[in-house]
Amino acid sequence: ATFQKMIRLVRDLAKKSGKEVALEMKGEETEIDRNMVEEIYEPLVHMIRNSVDHGIEPPEERGQAGKTAVGMVVLSAEQRGHDIVIEIQDDGKGLDAARIRSKAIERGLISADAPIEEEALYQLIFHPGFSTKEVVTEVSGRGVGMDVVKTSIEKLRGKIEVSSVHGRGSRFQLRLPLTMAIIDGMVTQIGNERYVVPTVALKESLRPEREAYLTVQGRGELIKVRDHLMPLIRLHQLFGVEPKQHNPWDALVLVVGENGSRYCLLVDEILGRQEVVIKSLGGSMRNLVGVSGGAILGDGRVALIIDVKGVVNLFEGSKK
Predict the structure, then answer these.
(1) Quick check: pTM over 0.85?
(2) Would residue 27 be called left, alpha or beta, if left means φ above 0 and alpha means ψ between -120 and 50 degrees?
(3) Residue 133: C-alpha distances to residues 30, 100, 129, 157, 174 (Å)
(4) Where in the chain is the domain with CATH 2.40.50.180?
(5) Is pLDDT at 156 greater than 60 in this prediction?
């Protein structure tokens, strides 16, 4: 719903500034806790205003630069390991490093002869009241400054990073901890342990036929699913758990997608689908590879949430 509101926002901003701007959204199905949504709504609005007003050029200027008349703003969200990553990217003129530098010198934030890396220079735009734009437009106004954006993100224990290519556009990346994220997951059981597989990565689940199980030299164990051979990942081996079933044809597999490839995760049982709130893990479990957090299930039991990307990387690494 937050992402949907942005469509109207971009349309209105483009109209007011006399520009043509299209908004592309990716990963709007990524579930984020409502409290977090409320906290990041204003910062997102401000950064999108910023992209349209400061970043995207008028059609004639874009034409002279060999770009299409319609400017592009991409808003994306995805889960990466222990974080929710939200990005606002535009194909506008990018940040003016020289202008930011002279403004920072003028305000005494850096000394004139001090060398400063571009990344650190861009972070200066988050200083209170910092602006390189003399003209206050109706679009970006004098409302929320970039310092307020940074404060809001840091309040959620997140961080904001900026990258920019002059003449090509800018990218603002927000990294927020998963502790406040909600995911839709498939609850599974291996031995006495429970694991949640995020449904966003899940393609299907099935009990393979005995003939569908193969071992191929150099490729290991495979499951044939409708003429496609998919590597079998024995989760019990990765997590050091004793399963109830060792044979794939007596157990179940979850087909997951990662990096354009498909894998079969072996589990004893599927207990059903459930929305769970991700809790960060403490102590030694904090750095557990292949796990993005914990969750308290409806019956009060604790389950580990599988980080599919991490599991696949762990599996591929173990084969080398």
Answers:
(1) no
(2) left
(3) 34, 10, 11, 29, 23
(4) 182-319
(5) yes
